[in-house]
Design a protein that fits this description.
By secondary structure, the protein is α/β, with parallel strands linked by helices. Helix 4 packs across helix 5 and helix 6 packs antiparallel against helix 7. The radius of gyration is 19 Å and the shape is globular.
Length: about 325
Protein backbone atom coordinates (compact mmCIF):
# COMPACT_ATOMS: atom_id res chain seq x y z
CA UNK A 1 0.00 0.00 0.00
CA UNK A 2 1.40 3.38 -1.01
CA UNK A 3 1.46 6.58 1.03
CA UNK A 4 -1.25 7.92 -1.26
CA UNK A 5 -3.42 4.91 -0.46
CA UNK A 6 -2.93 5.46 3.27
CA UNK A 7 -3.87 9.13 2.98
CA UNK A 8 -7.03 8.12 1.16
CA UNK A 9 -8.29 6.12 4.14
CA UNK A 10 -10.88 8.12 6.05
CA UNK A 11 -10.29 8.67 9.77
CA UNK A 12 -13.98 8.10 10.55
CA UNK A 13 -14.47 4.69 12.15
CA UNK A 14 -17.63 2.60 12.41
CA UNK A 15 -18.48 0.11 15.15
CA UNK A 16 -21.39 -1.51 16.96
CA UNK A 17 -22.43 -1.17 20.58
CA UNK A 18 -24.97 -3.26 22.47
CA UNK A 19 -27.63 -0.99 23.93
CA UNK A 20 -30.18 -2.04 26.56
CA UNK A 21 -33.48 -0.23 26.04
CA UNK A 22 -36.16 -1.25 28.53
CA UNK A 23 -34.65 -4.70 28.96
CA UNK A 24 -34.33 -5.30 25.19
CA UNK A 25 -30.85 -5.49 23.67
CA UNK A 26 -30.27 -3.58 20.42
CA UNK A 27 -27.15 -3.79 18.26
CA UNK A 28 -26.59 -0.14 17.39
CA UNK A 29 -24.21 1.01 14.69
CA UNK A 30 -22.31 4.27 15.12
CA UNK A 31 -19.51 6.18 13.44
CA UNK A 32 -17.13 8.52 15.21
CA UNK A 33 -14.16 10.78 14.74
CA UNK A 34 -12.20 13.01 17.06
CA UNK A 35 -10.09 12.63 20.21
CA UNK A 36 -11.20 10.04 22.73
CA UNK A 37 -11.02 12.69 25.46
CA UNK A 38 -12.78 15.31 23.31
CA UNK A 39 -16.18 16.74 24.18
CA UNK A 40 -18.71 14.15 22.97
CA UNK A 41 -21.08 15.47 20.29
CA UNK A 42 -23.90 12.94 19.88
CA UNK A 43 -25.71 13.30 16.54
CA UNK A 44 -29.25 12.06 15.80
CA UNK A 45 -30.43 11.70 12.19
CA UNK A 46 -33.79 12.70 10.73
CA UNK A 47 -36.92 10.53 10.45
CA UNK A 48 -36.54 7.41 8.34
CA UNK A 49 -32.88 8.09 7.63
CA UNK A 50 -29.48 7.16 9.07
CA UNK A 51 -26.16 8.53 10.25
CA UNK A 52 -24.82 9.14 6.74
CA UNK A 53 -26.40 12.59 7.00
CA UNK A 54 -23.60 13.59 9.40
CA UNK A 55 -20.74 12.50 7.15
CA UNK A 56 -19.26 15.96 6.63
CA UNK A 57 -19.51 16.89 10.31
CA UNK A 58 -17.57 13.70 11.08
CA UNK A 59 -14.95 14.68 8.48
CA UNK A 60 -14.49 18.32 9.50
CA UNK A 61 -11.00 18.60 11.00
CA UNK A 62 -11.72 21.83 12.86
CA UNK A 63 -14.72 20.27 14.63
CA UNK A 64 -13.08 16.91 15.33
CA UNK A 65 -9.98 18.60 16.70
CA UNK A 66 -11.94 19.48 19.85
CA UNK A 67 -15.05 17.29 19.71
CA UNK A 68 -15.54 13.54 19.63
CA UNK A 69 -18.31 13.43 17.03
CA UNK A 70 -20.55 10.36 17.27
CA UNK A 71 -23.34 9.73 14.76
CA UNK A 72 -25.47 6.63 15.32
CA UNK A 73 -28.23 4.76 13.53
CA UNK A 74 -31.29 4.62 15.77
CA UNK A 75 -32.62 1.06 16.29
CA UNK A 76 -34.42 -0.13 13.12
CA UNK A 77 -32.51 2.43 11.02
CA UNK A 78 -29.48 2.12 8.76
CA UNK A 79 -27.09 -0.57 9.96
CA UNK A 80 -28.70 -0.96 13.40
CA UNK A 81 -30.40 -4.34 13.26
CA UNK A 82 -33.79 -5.04 14.86
CA UNK A 83 -33.57 -6.91 18.19
CA UNK A 84 -33.25 -10.70 17.96
CA UNK A 85 -35.25 -11.25 21.16
CA UNK A 86 -38.53 -9.91 19.75
CA UNK A 87 -40.84 -10.84 16.87
CA UNK A 88 -40.70 -7.25 15.66
CA UNK A 89 -42.16 -8.19 12.27
CA UNK A 90 -45.49 -9.07 13.90
CA UNK A 91 -46.48 -5.43 14.44
CA UNK A 92 -46.09 -2.11 12.67
CA UNK A 93 -43.14 0.03 13.71
CA UNK A 94 -44.31 3.15 15.54
CA UNK A 95 -42.24 5.34 17.86
CA UNK A 96 -43.35 7.56 20.75
CA UNK A 97 -41.47 10.40 22.39
CA UNK A 98 -40.87 8.31 25.52
CA UNK A 99 -39.32 5.51 23.46
CA UNK A 100 -37.28 7.94 21.38
CA UNK A 101 -35.78 9.80 24.32
CA UNK A 102 -35.11 6.54 26.18
CA UNK A 103 -33.19 5.14 23.20
CA UNK A 104 -31.01 8.23 22.88
CA UNK A 105 -30.10 8.22 26.56
CA UNK A 106 -29.46 4.46 26.46
CA UNK A 107 -27.03 4.95 23.57
CA UNK A 108 -25.19 7.70 25.48
CA UNK A 109 -25.04 5.40 28.52
CA UNK A 110 -23.83 2.37 26.54
CA UNK A 111 -21.01 4.48 25.07
CA UNK A 112 -20.24 5.79 28.58
CA UNK A 113 -20.32 9.38 27.37
CA UNK A 114 -19.57 11.95 30.04
CA UNK A 115 -21.38 15.27 29.75
CA UNK A 116 -22.09 15.03 26.00
CA UNK A 117 -23.69 17.61 23.74
CA UNK A 118 -26.78 16.28 22.03
CA UNK A 119 -27.60 17.45 18.52
CA UNK A 120 -30.51 16.16 16.46
CA UNK A 121 -32.36 17.29 13.34
CA UNK A 122 -36.05 17.24 12.37
CA UNK A 123 -37.54 14.51 14.59
CA UNK A 124 -34.16 14.65 16.33
CA UNK A 125 -34.69 18.39 16.75
CA UNK A 126 -38.20 17.95 18.13
CA UNK A 127 -37.07 15.39 20.70
CA UNK A 128 -34.63 17.95 22.07
CA UNK A 129 -37.65 19.22 24.05
CA UNK A 130 -38.35 15.84 25.64
CA UNK A 131 -34.66 15.44 26.45
CA UNK A 132 -34.49 18.93 27.95
CA UNK A 133 -37.61 18.20 30.00
CA UNK A 134 -36.90 14.64 31.15
CA UNK A 135 -33.10 14.18 31.00
CA UNK A 136 -31.43 17.61 31.31
CA UNK A 137 -28.82 16.32 33.76
CA UNK A 138 -27.55 13.82 31.16
CA UNK A 139 -26.26 16.48 28.72
CA UNK A 140 -23.90 19.46 28.65
CA UNK A 141 -26.15 21.17 26.09
CA UNK A 142 -29.01 20.20 23.80
CA UNK A 143 -29.14 21.42 20.18
CA UNK A 144 -32.38 21.01 18.26
CA UNK A 145 -32.01 21.58 14.52
CA UNK A 146 -35.23 22.17 12.56
CA UNK A 147 -37.13 21.83 15.83
CA UNK A 148 -40.76 22.53 16.61
CA UNK A 149 -43.06 22.24 19.59
CA UNK A 150 -45.70 20.76 17.29
CA UNK A 151 -45.43 19.51 13.69
CA UNK A 152 -48.74 17.92 12.65
CA UNK A 153 -49.91 16.54 9.33
CA UNK A 154 -47.18 14.14 8.22
CA UNK A 155 -48.38 10.80 9.59
CA UNK A 156 -49.79 9.66 6.24
CA UNK A 157 -51.02 6.15 5.35
CA UNK A 158 -49.62 6.10 1.82
CA UNK A 159 -46.08 6.57 3.14
CA UNK A 160 -46.25 2.81 3.76
CA UNK A 161 -48.54 1.41 1.07
CA UNK A 162 -48.06 -1.60 -1.29
CA UNK A 163 -49.16 0.44 -4.32
CA UNK A 164 -46.73 3.28 -3.64
CA UNK A 165 -42.99 3.30 -4.33
CA UNK A 166 -42.36 4.69 -0.87
CA UNK A 167 -38.58 4.91 -1.15
CA UNK A 168 -38.92 7.23 -4.15
CA UNK A 169 -41.82 9.20 -2.65
CA UNK A 170 -40.01 9.62 0.65
CA UNK A 171 -36.90 10.85 -1.14
CA UNK A 172 -38.68 13.35 -3.33
CA UNK A 173 -40.70 14.67 -0.41
CA UNK A 174 -37.37 15.94 0.92
CA UNK A 175 -36.42 17.87 -2.23
CA UNK A 176 -38.69 20.85 -1.64
CA UNK A 177 -37.52 21.15 1.96
CA UNK A 178 -33.97 22.01 0.93
CA UNK A 179 -32.68 25.46 0.04
CA UNK A 180 -31.68 26.04 -3.60
CA UNK A 181 -28.36 27.52 -2.46
CA UNK A 182 -27.04 24.06 -1.56
CA UNK A 183 -24.84 22.17 -4.05
CA UNK A 184 -27.01 19.86 -6.13
CA UNK A 185 -24.82 16.82 -5.47
CA UNK A 186 -25.37 17.28 -1.72
CA UNK A 187 -29.12 17.70 -2.09
CA UNK A 188 -29.28 14.64 -4.34
CA UNK A 189 -27.25 12.67 -1.80
CA UNK A 190 -29.72 13.67 0.90
CA UNK A 191 -32.48 12.14 -1.23
CA UNK A 192 -30.31 9.08 -1.85
CA UNK A 193 -30.07 8.48 1.90
CA UNK A 194 -33.84 8.43 2.07
CA UNK A 195 -34.06 5.72 -0.59
CA UNK A 196 -32.32 3.29 1.77
CA UNK A 197 -34.81 3.03 4.64
CA UNK A 198 -36.78 -0.09 5.55
CA UNK A 199 -40.47 -0.16 4.72
CA UNK A 200 -42.64 1.47 7.37
CA UNK A 201 -39.82 3.04 9.36
CA UNK A 202 -40.27 6.57 7.98
CA UNK A 203 -44.00 6.42 8.67
CA UNK A 204 -43.38 5.01 12.16
CA UNK A 205 -40.98 7.86 12.95
CA UNK A 206 -43.57 10.34 11.73
CA UNK A 207 -46.01 8.98 14.30
CA UNK A 208 -43.74 10.54 16.90
CA UNK A 209 -43.09 13.64 14.79
CA UNK A 210 -46.70 14.52 13.94
CA UNK A 211 -48.92 12.71 16.46
CA UNK A 212 -47.17 11.99 19.75
CA UNK A 213 -45.01 15.12 20.01
CA UNK A 214 -46.84 18.24 21.18
CA UNK A 215 -45.04 20.62 23.55
CA UNK A 216 -47.03 23.76 22.82
CA UNK A 217 -48.47 23.86 26.33
CA UNK A 218 -45.45 22.27 28.05
CA UNK A 219 -42.56 24.54 27.10
CA UNK A 220 -42.76 26.16 30.50
CA UNK A 221 -42.04 22.77 32.10
CA UNK A 222 -38.51 22.84 30.67
CA UNK A 223 -35.78 24.29 32.87
CA UNK A 224 -32.86 25.18 30.60
CA UNK A 225 -31.04 27.26 33.20
CA UNK A 226 -28.46 24.52 33.84
CA UNK A 227 -28.46 22.68 30.49
CA UNK A 228 -28.77 25.22 27.66
CA UNK A 229 -31.24 24.48 24.90
CA UNK A 230 -30.72 25.68 21.32
CA UNK A 231 -33.47 25.79 18.68
CA UNK A 232 -31.76 26.37 15.33
CA UNK A 233 -33.95 26.36 12.22
CA UNK A 234 -33.25 27.01 8.54
CA UNK A 235 -34.71 29.87 6.54
CA UNK A 236 -36.08 27.53 3.85
CA UNK A 237 -37.66 24.99 6.21
CA UNK A 238 -41.45 25.19 5.93
CA UNK A 239 -42.09 22.25 8.30
CA UNK A 240 -40.45 23.81 11.33
CA UNK A 241 -39.77 27.44 10.56
CA UNK A 242 -37.41 29.92 12.20
CA UNK A 243 -40.49 31.34 13.93
CA UNK A 244 -41.11 27.92 15.47
CA UNK A 245 -37.61 28.05 16.93
CA UNK A 246 -38.26 31.49 18.36
CA UNK A 247 -41.52 30.25 19.89
CA UNK A 248 -39.59 27.47 21.63
CA UNK A 249 -37.02 29.85 23.09
CA UNK A 250 -39.69 32.28 24.22
CA UNK A 251 -41.76 29.52 25.80
CA UNK A 252 -38.84 27.96 27.64
CA UNK A 253 -37.26 31.22 28.74
CA UNK A 254 -33.93 31.34 30.57
CA UNK A 255 -31.27 29.14 29.01
CA UNK A 256 -33.02 28.76 25.65
CA UNK A 257 -31.63 30.30 22.46
CA UNK A 258 -33.22 30.50 19.01
CA UNK A 259 -31.33 31.22 15.82
CA UNK A 260 -32.29 31.28 12.15
CA UNK A 261 -29.84 29.87 9.61
CA UNK A 262 -29.99 31.84 6.36
CA UNK A 263 -29.82 30.10 2.96
CA UNK A 264 -30.41 26.61 4.35
CA UNK A 265 -33.36 24.23 4.72
CA UNK A 266 -34.62 21.20 6.64
CA UNK A 267 -31.50 18.99 6.21
CA UNK A 268 -28.70 21.47 6.96
CA UNK A 269 -25.90 19.02 7.71
CA UNK A 270 -26.31 17.11 4.43
CA UNK A 271 -27.86 19.59 1.96
CA UNK A 272 -25.11 22.20 2.40
CA UNK A 273 -22.34 20.83 4.63
CA UNK A 274 -19.87 23.67 4.07
CA UNK A 275 -22.34 26.32 5.18
CA UNK A 276 -23.80 24.28 8.02
CA UNK A 277 -20.42 23.34 9.47
CA UNK A 278 -19.49 27.02 9.54
CA UNK A 279 -22.73 27.79 11.39
CA UNK A 280 -22.22 24.82 13.72
CA UNK A 281 -18.79 26.05 14.81
CA UNK A 282 -20.40 29.26 16.05
CA UNK A 283 -23.02 27.29 17.99
CA UNK A 284 -20.41 25.01 19.54
CA UNK A 285 -18.27 28.01 20.48
CA UNK A 286 -21.29 29.38 22.31
CA UNK A 287 -21.76 26.07 24.15
CA UNK A 288 -18.12 25.95 25.27
CA UNK A 289 -17.98 29.65 26.20
CA UNK A 290 -15.39 30.45 23.53
CA UNK A 291 -17.69 32.91 21.75
CA UNK A 292 -17.50 36.47 23.07
CA UNK A 293 -20.92 37.63 21.86
CA UNK A 294 -24.36 36.07 21.99
CA UNK A 295 -25.51 34.21 18.89
CA UNK A 296 -27.41 36.48 16.48
CA UNK A 297 -31.12 36.12 15.83
CA UNK A 298 -30.21 35.26 12.23
CA UNK A 299 -26.82 33.99 11.09
CA UNK A 300 -25.82 34.49 7.46
CA UNK A 301 -23.11 33.14 5.16
CA UNK A 302 -21.40 36.52 5.35
CA UNK A 303 -21.16 36.17 9.14
CA UNK A 304 -19.10 32.99 8.80
CA UNK A 305 -17.12 33.88 5.67
CA UNK A 306 -18.85 31.45 3.30
CA UNK A 307 -19.50 32.49 -0.30
CA UNK A 308 -22.54 30.39 -1.13
CA UNK A 309 -22.33 30.72 -4.90
CA UNK A 310 -18.66 29.71 -4.87
CA UNK A 311 -19.47 26.65 -2.74
CA UNK A 312 -22.18 25.67 -5.19
CA UNK A 313 -20.06 26.37 -8.27
CA UNK A 314 -17.01 24.73 -6.74
CA UNK A 315 -18.84 21.47 -6.29
CA UNK A 316 -19.87 21.51 -9.96
CA UNK A 317 -16.32 22.31 -11.02
CA UNK A 318 -14.87 19.44 -8.97
CA UNK A 319 -17.36 17.01 -10.51
CA UNK A 320 -16.43 18.24 -14.01
CA UNK A 321 -12.73 17.65 -13.32
Amino acid sequence: MSAADIDAVDEVTGRYVTVDVGGVEHRVYFEENGPEDGIPLLCQHTAGCNNQEWREVLRDEEITDEFRVIAYDLPYHGKSAPPTSQEWWEEDYSMTGEEFAERIVAIADALELEDPIYMGCSMGGNVSLELADWYPERFRAIIGLEAGAHSPGFYIDWLDHPEVNTTEVNAYSCWGLMAPQGPEHARRETMYHYEQGANGVFKGDLYYYSVDHDYRDKLGDIDASETPLYAINGEYDYLTTPEDARDIAEGVGEGATAMEMADIGHFPMSENPTLFNAYLKEILADVTGERDEALPDTITPEDVGVEVEKVKAGAVSEEAD
